[in-house]
Amino acid sequence: MPVLVASDLDRTLIYSAAALALTMPDARAPRLLCVEVHESRPLSYMTETAAALLTDLGDAAVFVPTTTRTRKQYQRINLPGPAPAYAICANGGHLLVDGVTDLDWHARVKARLDDECAPLDEVHEHLMTTADPLWVRKHRIAEDLFAYLVVERELLPDEWVKELAVWAENRGWTVSLQGRKVYAVPKPLTKSAALHEVARRTGADLTLAAGDSLLDADLLLAADRGWRPGHGELADSAWTAPAVSALPERGVLAGERILREFLKATRGEAAGSGS
Predict the structure, then answer these.
(1) Among candidates 75, 31, 80, which has minimal Cα distance to 56?
(2) Quick one: which H or E segment has residue 173?
(3) For the chain, what is the total number of helices (H) and then of strands (E)?
(4) What digits encode the pLDDT tens for the residues 177-226?
(5) Which residue, of 28, 126, 137, 156, has the fewest CB within 10 Å?
(6) Is 119 helix (H, G, I), strand (E, B) or coil?
């Protein structure tokens, strides 16, 4: 039976220059591989060691990139290793099969959001009217599923985020602050629901997951084993769960450690299956 590995990407496996957290002397910094270019500029990186580990993992398990990114944002990432047969985008709103959206899955997700949550237009309007242009750089709607703001983090009032979270909670939405982005996402729009669907299709009997943000919590809880890095929303709030390991590494080296843990667990399962 295959092992399924579902991992968040940004600040879990891949890192912007600002998120690398290279605290060691320059001469001891790891060699980096650029895995994303945007508007002709390098944008995201992993260590060369992590790239080799991910290639090994792609050969040993069903690796499923699992991201809140839109399909367009995901598709500009060039990960090393075999092309994933499945990918989860838009926080579970799109399930890609060999790079193509599964329309039946998307329709099921949309129907559930329509039944259970306040409309996207209402939430977006609230963001537009309550967010201060002083600290908002961009307003965005992603895949007609959720909304987010790009903000000046140092100017963003903590109270505004807390008040937004309460307002959203009463309408069936959740709020997540990740780096310079404030996300408003419908509660049923989850990575875990898409993970369960991929597990059903592949017949996986072991699922592994990793992530750093509030939007990854349900993914980690849905997996048999999970890991979170020493940075991010979950680490900042000291979030934990019985089957989730909190790693001490921060920044790009955390991505390397997570891939080592994935491989160790995958190979342990393979050895156990063969005994």
Answers:
(1) 80
(2) strand 173-178
(3) 9, 14
(4) 988 999 999 999 999 999 999 999 999 989 999 999 999 999 999 999 99
(5) 28
(6) coil
